[in-house]
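Before we proceed, please read the two lines closing this message. Tell me what the C-alpha cell row says about the fold.
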Amino acid sequence: PPAAWRQRIQWENNGQVYSLLSLGSQYQPPRRRQAAEAAGSPILLLRNNGTLPDSGTGTDGNRSSTGAGGLPPLSNFRPGREDVMVGDDPYNPYKYTDDNPYYNYYDTYERPRQGSRYRPGYGTGYFQYGLPDLVPDPYYIQASTYVQRMSMYNLRCAAEENCLASSAYRADVRDYDNRVLLRFPQRVKNQGTSDFLPSRPRYSWEWHSCHQHYHSMDEFSHYDLLDASSHRRVAEGHKASFCLEDTSCDYGYYRRYACTAHTQGLSPGCYDTYNADIDCQWIDITDVKPGNYILKVSVNPSYLVPESDYSNNIVRCDIRYTGHHAYASGCTISP
C-alpha cells in the first residue's frame, strides 16, 4: 500500500541500514480530504535501524513495521548520557580518545548498563576505593626542556597569573622587552585507587578570561630553580594553578574528567599532561646567570588533597644553562 512505501526510503552504509521515514509528505487528492481521519502534520524522521533487515521474510512494508499498528514511534528523542563529557578538542593529538570524538562512555571500574542513568556528579565520588597517588613523569620533563625568549607583549596573560619574575612587573618594563623562559612539560599520573579531586569546591573555582577555562586549585604544582651546590633558590618559582582533566589513560582505564566548569579531576590510571608550549609552564630565568642548577617540580606541594603516598611527588633534574641553551639530565623522583 502507499502508506508502507512512504516509509521505505532506505540505504545501506558499512553494514548499517538507514531509513528515511515520512508520514506526511504524500499528496492527498480532494476526495480524501473530508475523511474522518485528519492528516497529521508532516514529520521527517531520520532513523538508524542498527541491524540488517531479514531479506527472507515479508515485503519492504512488512519489514518496516515496528510497534503497534505497524508504525514506528513518532519520536527521534534519545535519552541523554549523563556520563558523557564534552568540552574536549577531539583533534588534540595529546588526548587519547580511541578515535572517538567524545570521552569514553564507561567508568573506570565497571561498564554501566545500557540506558542507565546516574545521579549528578557521576564519577566524582561514586566509585572510590582508597586514596589517589600522584606521580610526575621525570623522563617527560627531561626530554623536552628548552629556553625561549618572549616579549612582554606576548606574556600579558601570564603576567596576570603571576607567572613571571618580580623584575617583569617594574614600571619601566615595556611591551617589547624580552623575558628568558626555561620551558619544560609535565605529565602527572594518578596511580592510586581513587579520583584526585580539586581541593576547592566548584562554586569557588576561578574563571581566567585569558585562558578561557576555570582553575580548580590554587596550587597544583610548584616550580623552583635551585643552585646545584648550595641548593639555594636562584629563580623565583611560582605556583601553577591549572584545570584538572584526564588527558590520556592507560589501557583498560577510561577518561571521565574534562577541563570544564562541571567536572574536573584526575581518574586512576590516567594522566594530566601539560605541554611545554602552554602559558606558565616555565620558570622565568631572565635574571639567572649561566651555570649548573637543579629544576625542582612538585605536585600537590601543600598536601591539600590527601594521597596514599607523598614521597613520590617531587622530580629533580640537573640543568646546565649556557646563557642561550639549557640541557636537562638525571631527572629522577626524589622525596
